[in-house]
Design a protein that fits this description.
This protein has about 220 residues and is of the alpha/beta class. It is built from ten helices and five strands, in the order αβαβααβααβαβααα. The longest helix is centred in the first third of the chain and has 20 residues.
Amino acid sequence: MCLQKPEFFRAQLRALLRVAGERPDQLRVMLPLISHLEEVRTVRVLVERYSDELAREGYKVPERLTLGAMIEVPAAVMVADHLAREVDFFAIGTNDLTQYSLAVDRANEQVAGLYRPYHPAVLLLIERVISAGRRAGIPVSLCGEMAADPLAVPVLVGLGLEEFSMHPPALPVVRSLVRALSYREARRIAHKALSLSTAKDVEEYLLERLSGLLSHLKVRIRL
């Protein structure tokens, strides 16, 4: 919609650039639902255009706006290496990535049961994005239900994820889990999870593998 309604997007980008000009290095702009590299390049061109425009009007503008891509569709995952060379960070949106990968509308009761974030395909897509970010030297964060899911946290840490975005009430449990597991152990858990062939297999493995720890931390699991 932003690229189809340039005046609407212009107002947003100008506002962001003015804030970034007043507070350098304190603002990061994340582009949602990226599926084509051309979308990122178009936004870069618009940012330069509006930066020049604002500078002529006497406003402070940043030397370079920190721009990231939200990875929410499989197409973005498959070209993650290319995207990583042209953005400053990635943010994986697991809710939409799971939905689009499995062709499931999670709001539709008739097919909601097919929405399985532990599907091996979803885990492999997440791993691919994290690896692409690591190769390019850009940070990768993850948001969505998985970021605060006690069963998913050890897998995500084992895949190399270092930044989690979640609601504040989930922080104590996630922090306790991260502290209770060594990185080496998390790597083993992630490696095993990626080797399994069904979401059910992954869920059962994680429940069995982590039941003792979750019980000790008094964490309840709902699948």
